[in-house]
Amino acid sequence: MTILITGATGQLGGGVVRHLLGRTDEQVIVSVRNPAKFDVPGVEVRHGDFDAPETLDFRGVDKLLIVSADAHDSDVRIQQHANAVAKAVEHSVGHVFYTSITDADTSTVGAAVVHKATEQIIRDSGLPFTFLRNGMYHENYLGALTGETVAVSTKDGRVASAARDDFALAAAVALATDGHVNQTYELTGSTTWSFPELAGDRFRDVSDDDLIAAGLPPFVVDFFVAIRNGVFAQVRPDLEKLIGRPSTPIESLLGK
Ligand SMILES: NC(=O)c1ccc[n+]([C@@H]2O[C@H](COP(=O)([O-])OP(=O)(O)OC[C@H]3O[C@@H](n4cnc5c(N)ncnc54)[C@H](OP(=O)(O)O)[C@@H]3O)[C@@H](O)[C@H]2O)c1
Predict the structure, then answer these.
(1) Which of 35, 149, 191, 249 has its Cα between 20 and 30 A from that of 76?
(2) How many structural domains does the chain have?
């Protein structure tokens, strides 16, 4: 059995590799844009850039984890993922795993467009698949939550986020265990929190326009809108089931 992970120079993919090595003797391969950035003993490194499909080499791979890429342009990102899926078909990969977003097909957050389209491309490929629909990482919010003031437009919208490393562990478990064929996992934290709750008297209720005027990129503000609208508020059981324990609470990462 051969397992290949893309995006392994990134934080999530790197975590998946680390967790996988601790729980399987299967051959682990990574496909990365810059092989010089990855050096883990026992792991085969292949060069692969989603923007240059001819570089992608998924030959001999039973399970492929496509970690979603990080370009800001949705069309570029969808094409990158389409390139990876096309190569998976060409190289007869046995099973494709993809890191998506919670409720990818119905979510109102802008980023979901990419994940909905990519999931459809994977379904249309006919390859067995597993969608790991990751909720928000705690890490997205640590900077804001540790500021002197916490100026956000979320109001008291709740977030069922989880530590990035818990999502990495869930992916590693899914890759290392049997089953999961044509399954969609909605992965969230075990508990929810809100900005006013965690920021206390440092919380400042500001508008989306205030944040844009302060220089925040529109895609970040879009995530605050989604939080305000409860898009990431629901706790689902799938992450706990995969990792075999409640998720790490955000308070642990905040040193509380
Ligand atoms: N759920 C959330 O809260 C959340 C938050 C942020 C991001 N995300 C999504 O989850 C993904 C993984 O998160 P992360 O924290 O690991 O992000 P990250 O640390 O930025 O890692 C992104 C990975 O994608 C690789 N990549 C980018 N473009 C590529 C291309 N054209 N060809 C091949 N590889 C490419 C990067 O390679 P290089 O090392 O060469 O740049 C890197 O390994 C992100 O890419 C993004 O889609 C989710």
Answers:
(1) 35
(2) 1
